[in-house]
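S.,

Sequence below, as promised.
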Amino acid sequence: MEFRAFSNPGNNKSKNFDLIQYQRDARALTTPQSVFQMWEDVCRKYEMGTIAQNEWEELKDTLWSVLAETSKLQRQIDSSFSTKTNAA
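The prediction came back faster than expected:
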């Protein structure tokens, strides 16, 4: 699943921002690149004042754990291919 930025019209903090949905979407990401893309979107929303600091912190924690898991999985897959290639 690739991340696509949500439209969030208005300037009222948290009024249109769905933290729970963002966290669900973050947990569904499958590549480090998509995690970084979502992080850039979250930072942009924070800088524009669309989301509050506590929401930014929660998303940072969520994305950090997702990044760690996707990176670990990617390393395991890469290692598996390397092992099979070296054995052949």
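Helices lie at 19-27, 32-48, 53-87.

Coffee later?
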